[in-house]
């Protein structure tokens, strides 16, 4: 179950994307925060969730000698799972001291070996306003593809109909011309026979 933090605040000044998810974590044995430390948290989280590191952003806040991590996760329609499922996976990993996430944090060079993520601290600061998924993108692509296929069939049908009309006119005119030629030929042949008979009688 994702915990919601009513008092957590976001410290960085960047504009927050309403479709991003933001969670609050805690680092134990944290003497001071640094940019390298934030980079290490971003790298470890991205490796564990198997997403691009550019989709993970971390800022560390030192409060009363304790380090709190504001972790932002961006969505992507290329994911096979939703951002909600990513958050659930991350929460389970935080609470399990033997998860791969804690191993990735331990092996990050920019994070001291004695600095670990607190398994009891996981608060959701911001739920995404819209849940993106690959299925919605696939549905849109399928609809677009179906529409394109339908138009293609219409163009083919129109081409066949137009060709049939042109072919009918061609056959009609060709037949009319043939009948006229035969009629003229017959009249000429009868005229020749009449002349021949007249010539014979003479």
Number of helices: 4
Instruction: Give the count of structural domains.
Output: 2
> N- to C-terminal separation?
123 Å
Query: What integer value in Å does the Rg equal?
Result: 40 Å
Give the % helix: 40-55%
Order of helices and strands: EHEEHHEEH
CATH topology of the largest domain: Alpha-Beta Plaits
* Number of distinct beta strands: 5
Report the CATH architecture of the largest domain. Answer: 2-Layer Sandwich
β-strand percent reads 5-15%
Largest sheet, if any? 5 strands, antiparallel
Q: Any idea of the CATH class of the largest domain? A: Alpha Beta
Shape: rod-shaped
Low-confidence stretches: 5-13, 137-142
Return the structural class.
alpha+beta
Mean pLDDT across every amino acid position: 79
